[in-house]
Amino acid sequence: MSDVQKTVPSGVYAPLYTFFHEDEPLDLEAFKQHVKWVASAGVGIVALGSSGEAVHLSHDERREVLLAARQVLDSDASLAAIPLIAGTPASSTRETIELTRQAAECGADFAMVITPGYFAGALTRAAIKQFFTDVAEASLFLDGAGCITGLANLAPKTCMKLYKATTEYLQSPTAEALDEVRRLQGIVSRGDWPVIKGGIAGPKYVLDRIRGYGGAPRRPLLPMEAKDGEKMLAALQEILDHEKTL
């Protein structure tokens, strides 16, 4: 591993969804809109994670997604400092390293690596440790910090407000500051569970309703039925209303 160190900035990060047209090619314009909206709230970008359906994408498609995110961040001076984290999930160590290097070439600041799951039954503790060791030794940087929450796809300003309020309270604790943290934490907590239950299809349904883009996941995942989507939208109304005030 290189002696060069780069620290992941602490803060709120959104694991972005990948958007598709009806016949399933990438909808990069919708993705760019979403990157800009989320990043404009000061939220860091995580592309190609589980929420981003990375396992449904080819290597070339993953490259396109990262290049699109990098283009949006580089096109606006106010967004240039927003970190871009790339998920590089793969079934083998070799492919994980290859995708991590590709992510760096596409302008990602950091990579997010997960344990391979296809041969989960055969992965001993020693094998898992060796996997992360091999990937880390092939990387320039190794670190981890901050919060990654799917809710930041739908209410990025609210998530950032909670993060900032908590940081301010820790630096200068007062009863009033604690009350504000608790108020915001309640709003975020009540919004988080519907997003978790909604998987990928649910938040995409909500994005369609509140942002005009979202669409369906790539098959074999199916879109959320309208009746379930409307229930999820209703469950999120408190935090969505709060987001509009910011």
TrEMBL record:
Xref: InterPro entries: Aldolase_TIM, DapA-like
The record, for Pfam families, names:
DHDPS (PF00701)
- Does the UniProt entry include the keyword Membrane? no
Q: At the top level of its lineage, which domain of life is listed?
A: Eukaryota
- UniProt keyword list: Lyase
One GO molecular function term of this record is: 4-hydroxy-tetrahydrodipicolinate synthase activity
Signal peptide stretch: none
- This protein is called Dihydrodipicolinate synthetase
